[in-house]
Amino acid sequence: MKKKFSWFMVLLLLAVAFMSGCGNSNSSQSKGVSDLNDVVNLKYWVPFSGGDGEFMENLVNEFNNTHEEIQVEMLNVEWDNYYTKLRTALIARSGPDVAIAHASYLAELVPTGMVEPVDTIAGEAGIDWTTYTENQVSAVTVDDKRYAVPLDTHALIMYYNKDYLGEVGLLDENENLVIDPGTEGFLSMLETLNDKLPEGVFPFASNTDNVYPFWIWYSLNSQNGGKYIEDEKAAFNNEVGKEALQVLVDMVEKGVWPKNVTNGYDLFKSGRSAVNFAGVWATGNYEKDEELNFGAVPIPTLFGEQAVWGDSHTLILPVQDNREKQIAAAKFSDWLAENGAKWAVAGHVPSKQSVLDSEEFQNLNYRSNYAEVTQYVDYMPRSLKLLSANNIMINNLTMLLNGSITADEFLEKSEIEINNLSAN
Fold first, then answer.
1. Is the pLDDT of residue 182 over 80?
2. Taking the model in full, what pTM does it have?
3. Same domain, 258 and 269
């Protein structure tokens, strides 16, 4: 009987020990879950392709490696569908915790009521708005509320082949452009190139079948003091708009900008064009070719004011109930801007003055030569018609530059079509 009792006690003690061990195991697992719950996980949407996508992925990886308390999962959505998916996700409240949005798209996104004003959140995240350049903060401010954190400026700039321009005497001893001011000086430069360049090399080449003619006209119209859309109406069918337009027409008619250009990037990169207007993101592409000896500067001021078309990548915070995630998203956004010199490798101009002044940024080739555009980029007007209006301008400018319509017909046609757009 005693033996049976002894075995019973042994089994009982083993059972208690086992249950105790299980309890300790569960306690350890619970602690692990708690630790995991201390990490804020963010979903981050971007529309980047090519080099931009790689640079952003590298930044996200660096952030994750240096911030144990916040981890970011980046989803790169195809550009053509990006804003449709983002808008749908915002309205359904099923989207990301933080997302890239161009400043020009805020006019479409903010009215959904699903983009969070970031002022209070930014304060809780420790963001100092005075560290951002003024023009870029203004671009994300709607009705005195900031709706995004600016990441960069990307503008239209001028690329030039130093070999060609140097051979015809259009560069100084520092390889800077030497041209007379105004439209006459610019056109004279291109005509000089047209007379002296080798056969098969164009003085100027930017695509004529897509957005570039619109960006060029928009820049010159802004330099001339013109407006694009005001009070949901076209505001460019006037002498100011026509003078800006005439520069493009003269370039084609004088034969310095060939018609039907569909490969402006390739023409410049391969040495078949002396001058090229393109976005700053082309810098990273052009510098990969070691044989291409080029310069990159702001486009010339052909009229009375310094101005240029440009936009900004910004970071928006969708409306949600999780304040902790919103604060973490704001911290992540500010960190990206603070590390803008790494993003500038893609060609973009950082949004923080401290980054622009940093040795890391200044040591990058080309970028500091056009960084001044941050001060005078003329952002697109805030209009619900904007995207549709832009498409009208792009299509009609293609018709103008291939000779299908005149300048007067372009202005009248574009004005009527934009004014007939619904603002809803």
1. yes
2. 0.89
3. yes
